[in-house]
Amino acid sequence: MILELKNITMRFGGVTAIDNLSFGVKTGEIYGLIGPNGAGKTTLFNIVTRNYTQTEGEVIFNHEEISDLKPDMIVQRGIARTFQNIRLFKSMSVLENVLIGFHNQANYTYFESMFRLPRHFLFERKLKKEAMEMLERFGLVEFAEVNATSLSYGNQRKVEIARALATNPKLLLLDEPAAGMNPNETEDLSEIIRRIKDEFGLTILLIEHDMKFVNNMCDKVLVLDYGEEIFEGKPSDAIVNEKVIEAYLGDFKHA
Amino acid sequence: MKMVKISFLIISILFIWFAQNYIDPYALSILNNIAIFAILALSYNLINGVTGQFSLEPNGFVAIGAYITALFLISADTKVDMFALEDPAPIILAMSLDFLPALLVSGVVAAFVAFILSVPVFRVRGDYLAIVTLGFGFIIKILAINNPKYTNGAMGLNDIPEFSNLYWTGGIMILTMLAMLNIIYSKFGRAMKAIRDDEDAATAMGINTFWIKTYAFMTSAFFEGVGGGLLAALLTTISPDQFTFLLTFQLLIIIVLGGLGSMTGTMVGTILVIGGMEWLRFLDENMTIFGYETGAHPGMRMVVFAILLIIMMLFARKGIFQDKELTEIFKKGSK
After folding, report:
1. Chain A closest CA to B117's CA: distance in Å?
2. How far apart are alpha carbons B319 and B157 in whole angstroms?
3. Rounded to whole angstroms, how far apart are CA atoms B12 and B33?
4. Residues B118, B121, B124, B128: is their CA dihedral positive or negative?
5. Is residue A63 part of a domain?
């Protein structure tokens, strides 16, 4: 188990967004979180990345309780994420966006770069090379110097994933990676995700509404509804599960 | 690109040497002014433009720098004569340093004060920095007025030895420029821009936003302190009234005009605003328009800049250079 959540409850004022939820993600798995809008999926992501602090419960990553860590330290421990609505740095080029991901691997101090001491150049050169390799993996080399937000939607998604990978994560959280993509782009994306998963030895936790994508990608899914677990298991079993269908489409029997 | 930078550097050094030796004193004083304001505006742009943390701090740090440098430079005997309201405190009499170390101490003290301010301010998000720094400017002024033992109160300090010349002001301006560009083109500069663009995403990249903001703020404060010291040694007289919010406002016009986040833009902005202030001096004086005497209105020229700022906000919100450096604009053009 690389990530374990134990008895997580999250309340916003009187609203219970997540209610006593427990689950674990095994190392090397692609784990899907699905459920209707407002089910608490993104809240769960924000708890794992420490943007929110849960009301109750424990988050254990790599056998370590991480509830007291700050979001930036979570990244250093090896959890990276992408956002539901793409959030690239809009004043920067694609290359710079990816370089930001390498921030903590550039091991020079403020003064070393202010006075342009050798270590500055050493690391900058090394990271630029690594960033270009990362872009190459995603087929984005030709856009390296282009402003990131001027890319197509699909390519922006790729930049966001490349940026997250640059932080050298063990666990990658993808928030609706296929949203807004056409079937071709989705196909392309699944291929990339599989490839990087093997190459970097990643574990992936993803939120997605595209059931075909989920069915294709995930080893296991957790279905949430109103902050409660209604199903955990194989994606192919999820789509025929009565409770799941009910949560998505409503209750037919009493309609 | 490197050749361009080096030739820029050589030309500026030659220009400084030429100006210091061959230009008349009036023009030289304008150039000194431009150089000092450029130091202040460049460093102000780091926190305000590059890091995107709206701050109103320069007047406070400039005051700190000016007072500290002045107290280090004035001799003990002069201090005894000058302090009219109360006798100077022993520590004030003991303060004595050469110009360069005095400037450095001014900068370091300003940076340290900035650090103390940033601990409460940067732990939370939002525009608290603007509020805190605005109040900070007033506090510094009140402290300066109400501690005559240390600052000679409202009478200010005069007879400061005139150490500043264009070698000092211009030289430190070039160093400031280099330091700023070196920061911007490093992982720290990228992180600052990332915070400006999207703080949550920056955190999600493992950036400790508190420290990056604190670095930017302390760097700004350091150079503002040094700039204040240069100003004191140029004007030879300082008083608490000099370091009001108006100084910050002037710097704000400069960086908005040049483009928030662009250091080369700030240079252009400084030349336009400070040069323009001199050129528009006639507005303050008595004018005769069609036989009608307007009378002297000190401060009329500030109206021009206020109008300019409004026009900028309406039509060119991002300033002359936007957030790009001159070199980047050329690079885009050649593509």
Report:
1. 20
2. 37
3. 16
4. negative
5. yes
